[in-house]
Amino acid sequence: xxxxxxVELSSRLMVGTARFPSPAILSQAVRVxxxxxxxxxxxxxxxxxxxxxxxWSIIRELGVxxxxxxxxxxxxxxxxxxxxxxxxxxxxxxxxLEVIGEDDTLQPDVFGLVEAARILTAEGFEVFPYTTEDLxxxxxxxxxxxxxxxxxxxxxxSGRGLNNLFGLKALRAxxxxxxxxxxxxxxxxxxxxxxxxxxxxAVLINTAIARARDPVGMAEAFSAAVEAxxxxxNAGPMETREMAEPSTPVIGKAFLT
Length: 257
Known about the structure:
Elements: E1 3-4, E2 7-8, E3 13-16, H1 23-33, E4 37-41, H2 53-62, E5 65-69, H3 76-90, E6 94-97, H4 110-122, E7 126-131, H5 135-143, E8 150-151, H6 165-174, E9 181-183, H7 189-197, E10 202-205, H8 207-210, H9 215-235
Parallel strand pairs: 3-4, 3-10, 4-5, 6-7, 7-8, 9-10
Antiparallel strand pairs: 1-2
C-alpha cells in the first residue's frame, strides 16, 4: 500500500467538502464514502479569528485527515501566503497546492506551481501539487521536493473523466515510486475505476458527489467503484487482444465428417 508522506491510508478515495447542499449531507456523504482524507478550502476560514469555526467543527467531527488547499490562488505569493494560513488554522503540514493559470479551464500555472512548491517544501510543508500530466513538470515538482503528484483528469468540475489516457499512462510508468492521485474532472464512478485500473493510487472527488441528485448515494457509489477497481488491478486483468480467443477449448472436440 502506498504511503502519503509516511501516512498509510486504507481508503483510496479522497473527497472535497465544497458545494454540498447542506452540512448534514456533507457529513453523511463523507462518512459513507469511507474516505480518510478531505480537502478544505482555506478561504472558508480566517487565520485571525477562525470565522469559519462552525464548518471546521463539522470536519473535526468526521475524524478525517484534513488536506487544506490553496483553491483560487493565481500567483506564487498568494499561494504561499494562503499555505501559511492553512498551517496556522488546521495545524497540519499537508497542503494541496493550486496555482491557477487560466480561467476557462482552471488549468494550473505550472511555472508558478513549481516555484511555489519549492518554496513551501523548503519551509517544511508536505505538498500535494495539483498539476497536469506533463512529464517535465512532474519531474520538476519531484525535484522541488514533492513526494506526491495530483494530475488532473480533465478541467475542474467538468465531469469529462480522463481526457489524456496516453499522458496519464506515461506519467504512471515514469514515476512508479511516486504516489499519484487523479484530481479534477472525474464525473462518474466508472471514471474513478478507470483511474485505479491504470495503476493510480487514489482519486479525489468533490463536484461529482456534491452536485449529484443524491450526494450520499453517489459517495457510496464512488467508494464501491474505487474498491472494486483496486481489487481488479491487484488481481491482474487479462491482456487485451486484437482478435477473438475462444473461451471454450477446442481440444477433444468431436469432428464430424
